[in-house]
Amino acid sequence: MSGHAPPDFVCLGESMVTFLPSRPGRLADVPSFARAIGGAESNVACALAAAGHRVKWVGRVGRDGFGHHLVETIGAHGVDVTAVGRDPHRPTGIYFRTADDRAADAHEVVYYRAGSAASAMSPATVPYDSVADGRVLHLTGITAALSADCLALMRELTAPRPGRPLVSFDVNHRPALWRDGTAPEVLLELARRADLVFVGADEAEALWGLMDPSAIRAALPEPAVLVVKGGGEGAVAFERRAASSPTPHLPEPGPLPPDPRAPNAGGADRDAVTTVPAPRVDVLAPVGAGDAFAAGFLSATLRGLDMTARLRHGHLMAAAALTVPGDVAVPPRRAHADRLAALDAGAWGTLHLGPGWTGDDQEVRTP
């Protein structure tokens, strides 16, 4: 970030030091681990900064070596970390995971985050002004699960108020964090208070028993934009707009669109529905793709691109994450991504991306 220009995006949430296994297998059998960083919101922040945006990450870390490492590493990605709190009494969270797909039965992840510095985030420890100076505030459901104070903060940040930034919310359901059974109710509440929502079809089924994207939209009518992610099958976006009004977007530079919670003046509301299949990807490590998708979609939104391009940029950023071993990937150059996102439907349908594709002209297409 340069000078004192306000950020395009503010991302709030817990980041942790993650330990990646040296080889596949059970945690009990892995002999060594490599240190990296992980955290849905900081992943999004790093990806957005790499895509050329001004980004600030807000969180809390312990005043310990792991906390210093997190702040330094995220800052090295070009993210403003000046609003990160340092807690002298609570540790920085860490976690270990296996190398296989998170959805696989054999996947293991062990968190050491109970009582972490981030779990002490609250309206008292995170001043509203520290997160409200961006054009878009990105949040996830993970934060709401960390503590009662964190949930109170999430409710404050998603509450309607004059001048509120556009709120982006990724449901990001982590069942292990919701042992009290309140996830369906709380995550639905927060999603309905946001302006732009990301949810996986599998999450919606687990949380609310909803499988069809249209049924998910019916349960979440309030957000101006709802993106339902179907993994390798693709994604569908529902965009609420007045019949006589153009598609709302976030051009750069320029003002934010009208508050989507306000009544529309141009006629009855309707949804524009856009479906974009995912390209074929040779997956190296199936982690971080959801966060990367959100970053790609948000970046394209701020640039004022149409909905098809937003979804395609989401898929491309996800493909960048899927083809590297860690949670955070270097995105393709903007011109490269724009060229791929502008392919006709036939060419997009044959796109085949593997490790190294983010370098220019590295993509291959199926016959």
What's the SSE blueprint?
Elements lengths: L8 E4 L3 E6 L11 E6 L1 H11 L4 E4 L1 E3 L2 H12 L8 E3 L6 E4 L11 E4 L23 E5 H4 L3 H11 L7 E5 L12 H10 L3 E5 H8 L4 H7 L5 E5 L5 E8 L26 E8 L3 E2 L7 H14 L4 H16 L11 H8 L3 H5 L1 E3 L10 E2 L2
Parallel strand pairs: 1-4, 1-9, 2-7, 5-6, 9-10, 10-11, 11-12, 15-16
Antiparallel strand pairs: 2-3, 7-8, 12-13, 13-14, 16-17
Helix pairs in contact: 1-8, 8-9, 9-10
| Mean pLDDT figure | 88
What percent of residues adopt helix (DSSP H or I)?
25-40%
| Order of secondary-structure elements | EEEHEEHEEEEHHEHEHHEEEEHHHHEE
The count of strands amounts to: 17
Strand content: 15-25%
Account of the 3D structure:
The model is unreliable at about 245-270 and about 365 (pLDDT under 50). The chain is globular. It has an 8-stranded mixed β-sheet with strand order 4-1-9-10-11-12-13-14, with helices on both faces. Strands 3-2-7-8 form a 4-stranded mixed β-sheet. Helix 2 links the parallel strand 5 (about 60) and strand 6 (about 85). The protein is α/β, with parallel strands linked by helices and about 375 residues long. Helix 1 packs across helix 8, helix 8 runs antiparallel to helix 9 and helix 9 packs across helix 10 (about 335-340). It contains 11 helices and 17 strands. The chain has helices at about 40-50, 65-75, 140-145, 150-160, 185-190, 200-210, 215-220, 290-300, 305-320, 335-340, 345-350, and strands at about 10, 15-20, 35-40, 55-60, 60, 85, 95, 110, 135-140, 165-170, 195-200, 225-230, 235-240, 270-275, 280, 350-355, 365.
